[in-house]
Write a structure and sequence with these properties.
heterodimer, A: 557 residues, alpha/beta, six-stranded mixed sheet, 15 helices, 35% helix, B: 363 residues, mainly alpha, 2 domains, 16 helices, 58% helix, globular, binds iron/sulfur cluster
Chain lengths: 557, 363
């Protein structure tokens, strides 16, 4: 498997990786409040297991998985649940979703847990189940429940690929994780091999990470006396964005292509991220659920870029604070700055004001510069999919010119599409044509936007078209439904009429009951009951004190 | 703390249209300098006239179409069109000829089709063909290259007067100044049943031919070639179009010269005379009017090479670059359609409208 292939296009981008690799991974202190989203993966949210006021321990499950494509969510430190409700999430749409809020007690008390270091004794289904209950999801950003990808489901998987390419500029969390926890990655890979019933594993790393490659090779050597260890190879792949894309990496390593609209399993491959492999190791061998992850905090507009081990649910603002906060606007020129970090580029965008001081950053990005999305605020929690926070000053985009058909976008597109044709049809809302040009094979890598001399926000058009098409499909499905329903219309009307009558009858009954109850005690209304109880207590106290006062002289006497 | 949002990528674009066009203009410098060296001030005066007219027409059209004038005028595309056109015209073309050609290029070929990015035909070549057909006599007012100008010495003022008033300097007549180009001569003499070897040995025509192509012309072509290679190095143009064009031209001319070396000039002559290198690297590579797919570009270039050879050899015009480019411009929609690359994960190239697309993946 040393013969590497290559994919079409791609870009050589400046890495900016050393910005955040000079220090080891630091652990962020426990925040006072954790906001833990209940659904942090693709698929169904779990069933809530806790209530407001409960005291929870670190590692205690907050939800249990429901359905096949699902995973648990856990308390990431000990404390009391102060609220369960809608909170804004780091999501491109700025959505709010249900979260559990924990006021931490600072003790960071673990729920008793136990792992199974001899994982080879466990049955594959048992491993999957433990991984699912440990809440392990794809940590590369896709957050697909790992247990699902660990199930070959009848397909023969001949190779497991562990993706440590980390091709996006600035991001170094996987790099640091491989350097510091190589053994966990190797053992995690071995557990995955065991669960999948697969013989071979490739750990693929871009060759701009020699330290990580060396660390993994050393760990592999150290584990050499474990004769049962699967066939694991560490392979350096050429640095080229987006080599870390699932489809692109598969092409590089195997020369095969994942069929359009298909899954890698169809060609006998499964891919997991390195951090996911490490999380699987912790889940199985230590019994620890996924409660924290490594996050890269980096960018030209933050004081001390570095990698942090962060509890899920920690507010982003605390990470930035820990990294020395936002740099003020117009910092000293390069020569005057001790760490030699670059001063803002010429033509920098308008900075954002923070209280009185102007800060240099005007964009907070979750993920990398090419595929990450801009967050509206830093008062959002870290989620399982948050690999990097990039704090940048991005100059305002200049107005787009017409497409000059230069074909640069065609040259760089790693999916071998014709972005300029896609753009043409997407901008004229020609949604059938745009699918004919394989819109849904676009991985939104941003290469085309990056090279376009006319500064057309191509990816924006493609996202828009995809959303529109999904929307139309949903509408169509709804309409189809309506048609089907129409056939049963009379029946439904009939049923509804019956139901209405029934409901009316019930309501009447209920009202009658309520009226009857109110006259007696009003206990069915908790608020009233509480007030009543309080009044009772006050009355009792009063009586008591009165009686005490009455008896006092006597007592004293 | 709140931030503005925007879609990815969150980077500054690598280049821009005006930078691309500026690099094209820079790449034109060596070849243009050679032209000016061999053919005198007329080259530069023509470029000046064309640029002024182009910018005026561009601004007027932008204004008339209600477009933002500044960003579009700053994109340098009108200047590129003007320079290419001026370089293609004879050095002593009267000023109004240059002006008319530029006017047609910018107003008709560019803006009436929708402006930058929307024109199906190469504007410079449309302008060229319009004057070529309308004013054939003026289009032959070529000077002999410097090395042969023993009897004429046109200074800047003389050239200006020639271009603006069509009055030759005292003591000279038009015919003594101008001369047919090597391509013209080859064509007319071959038609008179002379062989290539006869032409080269001729006392009058012989000195016009150098080692590779026409004397002087070989330098000009060589320097345009150098500029083109520099542009490919900087990824301003795609290498496939010139490669296809020159490859096809060499293939055809070599085959015919091997078949009958007396009646068909050798490939080196084809490559290094007339405006071949200018055409191959600067005109055919105009992105707007060329094919955009990799295979389409090969075919586009090869098609132009084919038509150049056919027109040069059997057509009634000495140099067929303009016609060849316009003919291939017409085929671009078809080329683009049938040469669509195979997208990742697709078994074969499914042409749009032919594949039965599945349901889009839900997020
Ligand atoms: S964003 Fe889509 S169209 Fe653009 S280069 Fe990437 S895959 Fe190709
Ligand atoms: S890179 Fe931009 S200008 Fe060039 S063809 Fe693509 S969309 Fe058009």
């Amino acid at each position: 498997m040393t013969q590497l292939s290559s994919f079409h296009g791609g870009l050589h981008l400046a890495g900016h990786k050393t910005l955040s690799t000079s220090q080891p991974i630091a652990t962020l202190p426990i925040p006072a409040r954790l906001v833990i989203p209940l659904n942090q993966h693709i698929g169904a949210a779990g069933e809530l297991l806790v209530a407001v006021g409960d005291h929870v321990l670190k590692g205690q499950a907050l939800t249990k998985p429901v359905g096949y494509v699902s995973a648990s969510v856990h308390a990431t430190s000990s404390g009391t649940i102060s609220d369960i409700g809608e909170y804004p999430l780091p999501h491109p749409s700025g959505l709010s979703a249900r979260c559990v809020v924990i006021d931490t007690d600072g003790k960071d008390e673990w729920l008793p847990h136990q792992g199974e270091p001899s994982y080879r004794l466990l049955h594959a289904a048992e491993i999957r189940n433990r991984v699912r209950h440990a809440g392990v999801v794809g940590l590369g950003g896709a957050t697909f429940p790992t247990s699902v990808k660990m199930n070959p489901a009848g397909q023969i998987i001949d190779t497991l690929i562990i993706n440590g390419a980390e091709c996006e500029p600035y991001i170094t969390c996987d790099d640091m994780l491989m350097r510091e926890r190589a053994k966990e990655v190797i053992l995690g890979a071995d557990i995955l091999l065991h669960a999948l019933g697969t013989a071979h594993c490739i750990i693929a790393i871009e060759d701009n990470k020699p330290d990580a490659i060396a660390a993994l090779r050393a760990a592999l050597k150290a584990a050499a006396d474990d004769t049962q260890l699967g066939d694991i190879a560490v392979i350096a792949v050429p640095t080229l964005y987006p080599t870390g894309g699932e489809k692109q990496l598969i092409k590089v390593l195997t020369g095969k292509e994942v069929p359009s609209h298909g899954l890698p399993a169809e060609i006998g491959l499964v891919m997991q991220n390195v951090a996911t492999a490490a999380a699987v190791y912790r889940a199985i061998c230590c019994g620890e659920p996924l409660i924290s992850r490594v996050v890269t905090v980096t960018g030209e507009a933050v004081a001390h870029p570095q990698n942090l081990e962060v509890r899920i649910g920690t507010p982003i603002s605390q990470l930035i604070e820990h990294c020395g906060g936002y740099l003020p606007a117009n910092p000293l020129p390069l020569s005057a700055r001790a760490d030699g970090s670059p001063s803002p580029q010429k033509g920098a965008g308008r900075p954002v004001s923070q209280g009185d001081t102007l800060i240099m950053a005007n964009r907070l990005i979750m993920g990398g510069p090419m595929m990450g999305f801009a967050l509206q605020s830093d008062e959002l929690p870290v989620t399982k999919g948050c690999n990097c926070l990039l704090i940048q000053n991005v100059p305002a985009a200049s107005a787009a010119m017409p497409c000059i058909r230069c074909g640069e976008c065609v040259t760089v597109c790693p999916a071998s599409l014709l972005p300029q044709q896609l753009y043409w049809h997407a901008s004229s809302k020609n949604f059938d044509q745009v699918q004919d040009y394989h819109l849904f094979d676009c991985i939104e890598c941003g290469c085309c936007s990056q090279v376009c001399p006319s500064h057309i926000p191509l990816v924006q058009y493609f996202r828009f078209a995809k959303t529109e098409i999904w929307h139309q499909e949903t509408e169509k499905r709804k309409a189809d439904h309506a048609r089907v329903r129409h056939d049963f219309r009379s029946e439904r009307l009939e049923r509804e009429k019956r139901e209405r009558e029934e409901a009316l009858r019930k309501k009447k009954e209920l009202l009658a009951q309520k009226a009857a109850a109110e006259t007696t005690s009003g206990e069915d209304d908790p608020k009233k009951a509480a007030i009543a109880a309080a009044m009772e207590r006050v009355k009792a106290k009063k009586e008591q004190s009165e009686s005490a006062a009455d008896s006092a002289p006597g007592k004293n006497a | 703390m709140r931030f503005n949002t925007a879609t990815s990528p969150h980077t500054t674009p690598a280049t821009s249209v005006d930078q691309v066009m500026r690099k094209v203009l820079i790449a034109l410098i060596p070849g243009t300098a050679a032209c000016a060296w061999f053919f005198g001030w007329g080259v530069l005066i023509n470029i000046g006239i064309a640029c002024v007219v182009a910018v005026l027409c561009e601004a007027a059209m932008l204004y008339a179409r209600g477009k933002a004038i500044k960003p579009y005028l700053m994109d340098n595309s009108a200047l590129v069109t003007a320079c290419l056109l001026a370089l293609a015209l004879p050095q002593l073309a009267p000023w109004w000829l240059t002006a008319i050609a530029t006017f047609f290029a910018i107003v008709f070929a560019k803006h009436l089709y929708g402006g930058l990015g929307f024109n199906p035909f190469n504007p410079a070549m449309v302008g060229y063909v319009v004057v070529m057909i309308s004013f054939p006599r003026e289009m032959t007012q070529w000077l002999p290259p410097l090395l042969l100008q023993t009897h004429v010495d046109l200074g800047f003022i003389d050239t200006l007067r020639l271009i603006f008033t069509s009055t030759p300097p005292p003591g000279l007549v038009w015919d003594s100044i101008t001369m047919a180009t090597p391509l013209d001569i080859t064509k007319t003499q071959l038609n008179l049943q002379f062989s290539i070897q006869d032409i080269h040995a001729d006392r009058n025509h012989g000195p016009l031919f150098g080692n590779l192509g026409g004397i002087g012309w070989e330098w000009i072509n060589g320097l345009f070639l150098a500029g083109g290679i520099w542009m490919m190095w900087h990824r301003i143009i795609d290498w496939r179009i010139p490669a296809g064009l020159l490859g096809m031209l060499v293939l055809l001319s070599n085959s015919f010269a091997l078949y009958d070396y007396a009646s068909y000039p050798p490939p080196t002559f084809e490559l290094f005379s007339g405006g071949i290198m200018l055409g191959a690297f600067f005109i055919a590579t105009d992105p707007v009017t060329a094919s955009t797919t990799p295979k389409g570009r090969w075919l586009f270039g090869a098609g132009i090479g084919f038509f150049i050879f056919v027109i040069r050899t059997w057509g009634s015009y000495p140099d067929g670059i303009a016609f060849a480019v316009l003919l291939m411009n017409m085929s671009v929609p078809l080329l683009d359609y049938y040469t669509m690359p195979r997208a990742y994960g697709h078994k074969w190239s499914e042409l749009p409208g032919e594949d039965k697309h599945q349901d889009p993946k839900q997020p």
